């Protein structure tokens, strides 16, 4: 399949769409048990090979939003009750929640609840990750040294705004998990490094200016 197009897989009760613009080949789908996704098979995805509930569950594992579904009953994918960001070791930010990503095309429905955001500075699809961190040799374990101000209750929309030639601002209640899985930071407004140069990752420290970072988004 070409990595620059969308492919629909139709079933009797549910339809699955794969968006090559967002896929970074984490393989949560391919490693799922059962015959829903089988590498090398045509078609690769057979929605009727699993129950509707199983299709929804496996598709929602996709961390980049490249996989989405349309339930024939009209029931949409529900946003998680809590906005969370995982600082992946040597990889992107994995973001889940009620997401409002500024500039995201309307034809990318998956990024309303799940997104992989570039933090190495090398992606050609900013603000989204395209896997360039591997070729760029990006290294950061995902350790988080700050705790944030916290909040009493989680949930609500999270506005994600890529700042031109600068960081990503996330405004709304957000929990950040370190690369180890530890709940590390909670707050309602944060500026996240996406140039790869900050000495206080995952937080922006202004290093993008000296690094000459250009965001092109």
Characterization of the model:
It is a single chain. The chain is mostly beta strands and 217 residues long. The chain folds into 2 domains: 6-71, Alpha-Beta Plaits, CATH 3.30.70.20; 84-211, 3-Layer(aba) Sandwich (Ribosomal Protein L9, domain 1). It is 8% helix and 26% strand. It is built from 3 helices and 10 strands. A hairpin with a 5-residue loop joins strand 8 and strand 9 (168-177).
In short:
With 217 residues, this protein is mainly beta. The protein has 3 helices and 10 strands.
> How is the biggest beta sheet arranged?
7 strands, mixed
What is the element string, with H for helices and E for strands? Answer: EEHEEEEEHEEEH
Overall residue-averaged pLDDT value: 95
**Which architecture of the largest domain does the CATH hierarchy give at level 2?**
3-Layer(aba) Sandwich
- Count every beta strand, where a strand is a DSSP E run of 2 or more residues: 10
Strand content: 25-35%
Structural class: mainly beta
How many domains make up the 3D coordinates? 2
CATH topology of the largest domain: Ribosomal Protein L9, domain 1
The value of Rg in angstroms is: 17 Å
Q: Shape, please?
A: globular
Within CATH, the superfamily of the largest domain carries the name CDGSH iron-sulfur domain, mitoNEET-type
Q: Counting H and I runs of at least 4 residues, what is the number of helices?
A: 3
- Binned, the helix content reads under 10%
Unreliable stretches, pLDDT < 50, 5 or more residues?
none
Protein name: Iron-binding zinc finger CDGSH type domain-containing protein
GO molecular function, one term: 2 iron, 2 sulfur cluster binding
Organism: Imhoffiella purpurea
Keywords: 2Fe-2S, Iron, Iron-sulfur, Metal-binding
């Amino acid at each position: 399949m070409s990595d620059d197009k969308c492919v629909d897989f139709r079933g009797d009760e549910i339809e699955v769409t794969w968006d090559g613009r967002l896929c970074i080949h984490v393989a949560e789908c391919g490693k799922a048990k059962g015959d829903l996704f089988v590498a090398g098979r045509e078609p690769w995805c057979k929605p009727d090979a699993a129950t509707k509930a199983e299709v929804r569950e496996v598709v929602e594992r996709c961390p980049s939003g490249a996989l989405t579904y349309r339930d024939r009953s009209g029931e949409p994918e529900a946003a998680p009750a809590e906005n969370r960001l995982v600082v992946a070791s040597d990889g992107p930010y994995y973001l889940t929640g009620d997401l409002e990503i500024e500039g995201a095309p309307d034809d990318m429905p998956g990024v309303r609840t799940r997104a992989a955001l570039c933090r190495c500075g090398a992606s050609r699809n900013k603000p989204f990750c395209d896997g360039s961190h591997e070729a760029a040799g990006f290294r950061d374990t995902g350790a988080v040294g700050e705790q944030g101000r916290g909040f009493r209750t989680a949930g609500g929309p999270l506005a994600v705004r890529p700042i031109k030639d600068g960081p990503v601002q996330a405004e709304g209640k957000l929990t950040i998990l370190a690369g180890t899985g530890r709940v590390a930071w909670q707050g309602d407004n944060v500026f996240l490094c996406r140039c790869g140069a900050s000495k206080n990752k995952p937080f922006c420290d202004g290093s993008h200016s000296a690094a000459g970072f250009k965001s092109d988004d």
